[in-house]
């Protein structure tokens, strides 16, 4: 028990009531610590799953087993999920190490603006992925043209 607080409030509440209040406060603190340890754990599991999905889609797109147009949107949304998972895990870990109040406030702000952030990042990743595919495709085309040109020159 906190003796200084008990001495200050002794005239207003009894010892049993004070013990009950302290136990309730400790229970709330333990629940808060549990939440702050669960949030990063779930975010890390989500991060691992999203990375696996991105890798599998990337492999399928490179082998040209799937339509690139259809899976670019899924790839961009999954990439956005990776960033969201990193943010939640980072803030949760920061809350466990430093100031929990700041971290909970940041998590609430992130959740409140999640739709806007997720949509914006998704659109940005669609653009980036399409440009990346175009660049890779143009490089492959140049290589194949150079190879055909070299083969033609060696034949003559």
TrEMBL record:
<feature type="transmembrane region" description="Helical">
    <location>
        <begin position="71"/>
        <end position="95"/>
    </location>
</feature>
<keyword id="KW-0472">Membrane</keyword>
<feature type="transmembrane region" description="Helical">
    <location>
        <begin position="34"/>
        <end position="59"/>
    </location>
</feature>
<feature type="transmembrane region" description="Helical">
    <location>
        <begin position="101"/>
        <end position="129"/>
    </location>
</feature>
<protein>
    <submittedName>
        <fullName>G-protein coupled receptors family 1 profile domain-containing protein</fullName>
    </submittedName>
</protein>
<keyword id="KW-0812">Transmembrane</keyword>
<keyword id="KW-1133">Transmembrane helix</keyword>
């Amino acid at each position: 028990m906190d003796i200084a607080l008990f001495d200050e409030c002794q005239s207003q509440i009894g010892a049993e009531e004070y013990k009950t209040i302290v136990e309730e406060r400790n229970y709330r603190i333990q629940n808060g610590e549990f939440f702050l340890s669960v949030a990063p754990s779930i975010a890390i599991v989500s991060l691992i799953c999203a990375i696996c999905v991105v890798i599998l889609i990337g492999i399928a797109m490179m082998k040209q087993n799937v339509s690139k147009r259809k899976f670019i949107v899924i790839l961009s949304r999954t990439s956005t999920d990776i960033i969201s998972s990193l943010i939640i895990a980072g803030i949760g870990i920061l809350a466990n190490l430093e100031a929990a109040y700041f971290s909970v406030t940041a998590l609430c702000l992130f959740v409140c603006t999640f739709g806007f952030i997720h949509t914006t990042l998704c659109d940005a990743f669609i653009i980036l992925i399409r440009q990346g595919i175009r660049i890779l495709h143009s490089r492959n085309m140049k290589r194949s043209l150079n190879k055909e040109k070299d083969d033609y020159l060696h034949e003559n």
